[in-house]
């Protein structure tokens, strides 16, 4: 048997894992020890595996993960592209900010891809997220604007896409990568994809290197997708807050309503967008209530 140290799980289904190596894609089983330890290999995992002469293999070791998402179950995501339209539907900044915060908590770089700028200006989003330090690209179905630049940024990375229905995710992906989401040849055969195949989380190779995360419904991520966001780390996940966090009068400042809060002062000074602070406050309250509810549930005999 031959050992590989750089295998990448593209997909797992029915107890089989399809692992890409420099010699191709191999169908593998996972060692029983993973089940005993309560560990499930995920798409995106870097693994060590052994391959038999007949081409079947076994996942021997899962290398350390940088992150792992709960919904969808996938590991080692580098970028999260949040596709948002300027209109039809109008942008919901609360959802956008929640997604950005979840990504930050999980160690994933958030990126905004703004579509439909031909119908309505995206200046308002640019003003808000320019101050927030979140990368923002204006994209178009024809591949104009920042579409090519965004494609270059994603090269060589593992990227997930998300956005409300109607914002133009599929249109953007086709403009950037053509029919990349219809894999052919060995990978398509190995993964057993077909018109009636049950969809699982899958890494799809991009032209020029890198992968996109394909999920049922194509990358509709839950707003609580990482499970890493808490009220205690929320402020750090709003990157424009960070320079002010040590300047508050009280060390226990929640940055929602306290006197002497440096973050609130930065809002008044125009350094932080009011909508970002308002959405932060709403998310903070949601997380605080969630924690209180979980404590109450655990205390029930």
Task: Kindly describe this structure.
With 301 residues, the protein is of the alpha/beta class. It has three domains: 2-64, OB fold (Dihydrolipoamide Acetyltransferase, E2P) (Beta Barrel); 74-214, P-loop containing nucleotide triphosphate hydrolases (Rossmann fold, 3-Layer(aba) Sandwich), CATH 3.40.50.300; 235-299, Probable gtpase engc, domain 3 (Ribonucleotide Reductase Protein R1, domain 1, Orthogonal Bundle), CATH 1.10.40. Helices cover 29% and strands 24% of the residues. It is built from eight helices and 13 strands. The chain has helices spanning 32-37, 93-105, 123-132, 147-154, 169-177, 185-191, 262-268, 274-299; strands at residues 2-13, 16-21, 24-30, 46-51, 57-62, 68-69, 74-75, 79-85, 109-115, 136-138, 158-162, 202-205, 211-214. Strand 12 (202-205) and strand 13 form a beta hairpin. The radius of gyration is 21 Å and the shape is globular.
Topology:
Elements: E1 2-13, E2 16-21, E3 24-30, H1 32-37, E4 46-51, E5 57-62, E6 68-69, E7 74-75, E8 79-85, H2 93-105, E9 109-115, H3 123-132, E10 136-138, H4 147-154, E11 158-162, H5 169-177, H6 185-191, E12 202-205, E13 211-214, H7 262-268, H8 274-299
Parallel strand pairs: 3-5, 8-9, 8-11, 9-10, 11-13
Antiparallel strand pairs: 1-2, 1-4, 2-3, 4-5, 6-7, 12-13
